[in-house]
């Protein structure tokens, strides 16, 4: 029977804006995430157009990886990480995104991080842009609506590709780029701040602007991939999709059709452009039905063909259902909600837990593209409690991860070419959707709380030693 490949990349995943902190240190500029206040599961975080004195912005300190990176990477190494997914903060390298020369202090920080990884034999997997574009680009161009952002992004890629030769091999152009196909992606993914937008959940949506911005990201991604392939052939370039598996609630053909259409727009549209180098056939009707007209320049479609990725990565947390029945019970989730699946349990944050859905999803993706896949986000957000003896017994997290890894093994037996697994938030960090610390994912607990207090000390959870055994046994001891 097939098993995980011997060079399987076990590790964990993070994002600069959710764990680095040091938001204005050593020349770093303000990013879009730096303008988001704290929030909770019930109270949405706000988006401010300037920094408000006395307001808590969780990204400003986060868990301060900037000053704790040696300690944290040593803990990752103790678990046996083969790979560490992190992102580079664009505004550390180009503070406004519009400079012509990079910030040396920002470049030097990531040199130190990558050198520390190399010391332990950990391969960095770098997301170039992970929900934190320079806020100055939002102010000047309304984010990716402005075509000028393509050149600014490519200049940023040129700087980091050149600087980190020999230190980074695996790159992802944009995090969860398909967030731009959904209203919540306006500010989160595209840096679009339409007039009237005040909080993170209720963003003012103009679909035509959103898909225009998404098109500009497609072109920027393709140019970055083409640049890497031509100048740095040792680099492996990947895409990253927030895969939102959607089932029909019933076998009613209306439900089945609704599910197919949801999967097309949520999942396949963006990855088809990345992997196949062209907009899919169904996009034309979707744009026509929704009065979306995308402005393209003459060579745009050629550029997309020239910049196809080498491997496909995705996040997987949950599945959802859709139905034509308007009276069905709704439930929340990652980027989109849906209808409650009566066969599944949900997390404390209402995300439906579906390990078998991961096997199904891996088979769907691999069957469509037949290029190597990697699960680069997967995990359970939960409120972890410290026992009187100081231990953190997160068996619920162990069970969640175990069940998903078991289904990954089944997918490998099915013939899927799976190259790695990096559970989300391998160390506790700020939630992207709610702006809170209470929703913890990590194997490592960080003493930081939703009011900004905490001494930032690190301690291992029960899942730390469990995951260490998983890695050491290459997924055989679960």
From TrEMBL:
GO terms for cellular component: cytosol. InterPro entries: GH, GH_1_N_CS, Glyco_hydro_1. Keywords: Glycosidase, Hydrolase. The keyword Transcription does not apply. GO terms for molecular function: beta-glucosidase activity. The keyword Hydrolase applies. GO terms for biological process: carbohydrate catabolic process. Belongs to the glycosyl hydrolase 1 family. This is 6-phospho-beta-glucosidase. It comes from Anaeromicropila herbilytica. The gene is bglA.
């Amino acid at each position: 029977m097939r098993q995980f490949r011997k060079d399987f990349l076990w590790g964990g995943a993070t994002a600069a804006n959710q764990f680095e902190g040091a938001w204005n240190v050593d020349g770093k500029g303000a990013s879009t995430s730096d303008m988001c206040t704290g929030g909770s599961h019930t109270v949405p975080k706000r988006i401010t157009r300037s920094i408000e004195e006395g307001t808590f912005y969780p990204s400003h300190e986060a868990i301060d990886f900037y000053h704790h990176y040696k300690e944290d990477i040593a803990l990752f190494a103790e678990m046996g990480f083969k790979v560490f997914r992190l992102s580079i903060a664009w505004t550390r390298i180009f503070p406004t995104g519009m400079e012509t020369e990079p910030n040396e202090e920002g470049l030097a920080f990531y040199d130190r991080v990558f050198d520390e990884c190399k010391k332990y034999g950990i391969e960095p997997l770098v997301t170039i842009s992970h929900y934190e574009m320079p806020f100055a680009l939002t102010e000047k161009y309304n984010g990716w609506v402005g075509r000028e952002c393509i050149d600014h992004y490519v200049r940023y890629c040129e700087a980091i590709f050149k600087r980190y030769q020999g230190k980074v091999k695996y790159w992802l152009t944009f995090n969860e780029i398909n967030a731009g196909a959904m209203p919540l992606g306006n500010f989160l993914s595209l840096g679009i701040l339409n007039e009237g937008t005040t909080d993170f959940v209720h963003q003012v949506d103009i679909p035509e602007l959103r898909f225009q911005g998404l098109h500009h990201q497609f072109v920027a991604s393709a140019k970055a991939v083409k640049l890497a392939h031509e100048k740095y052939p040792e680099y492996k370039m990947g895409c990253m999709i927030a895969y939102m598996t959607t089932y029909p609630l019933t076998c009613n053909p209306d439900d089945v059709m609704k599910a197919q259409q949801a999967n097309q727009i949520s999942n396949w549209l963006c990855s088809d452009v990345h992997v196949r180098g062209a907009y899919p056939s169904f996009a034309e009707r979707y744009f026509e039905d929704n009065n979306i007209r995308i402005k393209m320049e003459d060579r745009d479609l050629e550029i997309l063909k020239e910049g196809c990725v080498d491997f496909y990565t995705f996040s997987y947390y949950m599945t959802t259902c859709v139905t034509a029945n308007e009276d069905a019970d709704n439930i929340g989730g990652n980027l989109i909600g849906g209808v409650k699946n009566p066969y599944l349990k949900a997390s404390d944050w209402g995300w439906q837990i579906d390990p078998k859905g991961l096997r199904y999803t891996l088979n769907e993706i691999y069957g469509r593209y037949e290029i190597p896949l990697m699960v680069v986000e997967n995990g359970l957000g939960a409120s972890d409690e410290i026992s009187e003896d100081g231990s953190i017994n997160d068996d619920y997290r162990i069970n969640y991860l175990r069940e998903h890894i078991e289904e990954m093994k089944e997918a490998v037996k099915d013939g899927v070419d799976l190259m790695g697994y990096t559970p989300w938030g391998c160390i506790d960090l700020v939630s992207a959707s709610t702006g809170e610390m209470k929703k913890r994912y990590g194997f490592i607990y960080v003493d930081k709380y939703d009011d900004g207090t905490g001494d930032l000390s690190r301690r291992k959870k029960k899942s730390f030693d469990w995951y260490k055994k998983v890695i050491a046994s290459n997924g055989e001891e679960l």
